[in-house]
Design brief:
Number of domains: 2
Bound molecules: zinc ion
CATH class of the largest domain: Alpha Beta
CATH topology of the largest domain: Alkaline Phosphatase, subunit A
CATH superfamily of the largest domain: Alkaline Phosphatase, subunit A
Number of strands: 13
Number of helices: 10
Distance between the termini: 90 Å
Radius of gyration: 22 Å
Length: about 375
Amino acid sequence: MGGAHHPVFARGLALVSALALPSCRAPVAPPAPLWALLTVDTWRFDHWTAARSPNFWALGQQGEAYTNVWSPIGLTTPAHLTMMTGLQPWEHGVEANNHHGFSLPAAVPTLAEQRPGWDSAAFVSAWPAGPEGGLARGFDRFEGPEQGERDGRFAVDAGRAWLEAHRPDQPGLLWVHLYEPHGPYVGDGPDDPSRYAEEVARADTLLGPLIDALVARGATIVVAADHGEILLEETCGRQHERSVGDHVLHVPLLRHRPGISPRVDGGLRSLADVPALLAGEDPPARPYIIAESGMCEPSCAPGCAPPGIQGRDRVLIGPSGRVGLRPGRGARVEGRPPVEAAEAERLLRALPPVPIPAEPEDAAGLEALGYRPREGGAGR
Ligand SMILES: [Zn+2]
């Protein structure tokens, strides 16, 4: 007797212990919530595939793949603020990028501001995602380039270091932004579409290890694009801010969290649903989406007026049709819109006018970010 262990009992204990421990492959939720928003700038929905973005594809297969999600605008600052506030650009008030002088009104709270006391950090990769527009508000730490863009590995490495230092008993919010797929495209391919695909693959490769670390920590992860891109669909390729085409507004979005049941969700969603998705909610599908172009450039959108950020197309998008409204041209119906054309036109005309920008365009700064100068020079 004494202290000798009964061999069967000891083996039974070991078995119970093994069953009680979470395995590495099935992470459990951490004691405090841990949310991660990973945004890939300018990532088109049709480049969310097993071949072009294998890490994002696999995570979507293991989690929830949202296949009918729409950006409100092809501009980085307003679209990201929609993800950070749950509001559309004409609701949160930032109708163009931060370098036009637009900034989030103090009365509109951000996701990070709504979670005081959380351990929070944001690491971004380009100026339009910088602090001037209000995207930094509420984060304990915010890092990004003061001008232009930077290689995505800096944001990913900073995000991984933050995660390693983050205590699991403290609520955490992490935002990592990559700019690789935004022009100018770097790659070995012979043309813009092939080099763009290389940039998407590069963003996917860069984020892979961070995704693995977040999954292991039991994080709720949302991966999304702020908008897509024009490749060959329009004469003005690589100028997503001037279009309301599907290739610009239809974006990838996925969610992964512990215990999730894999599924594909085809309900109509907006990037404004991101805060609810991070919070673990299941926002209902929308009957329609309203979106707008970020800028009028007549060579890109014939007949739009006035040139610049105030003459923009607006569009109401439903599951099987859309109604577009170009100032001075009237409504254009495609497919079967979810509401009568007259009602769609009334809804689009009821949106507030775009405010006059506080600052003129900085042509050199915009070119450094991959934007092409507006025809007729850099005005407002
Ligand atoms: Zn962007």
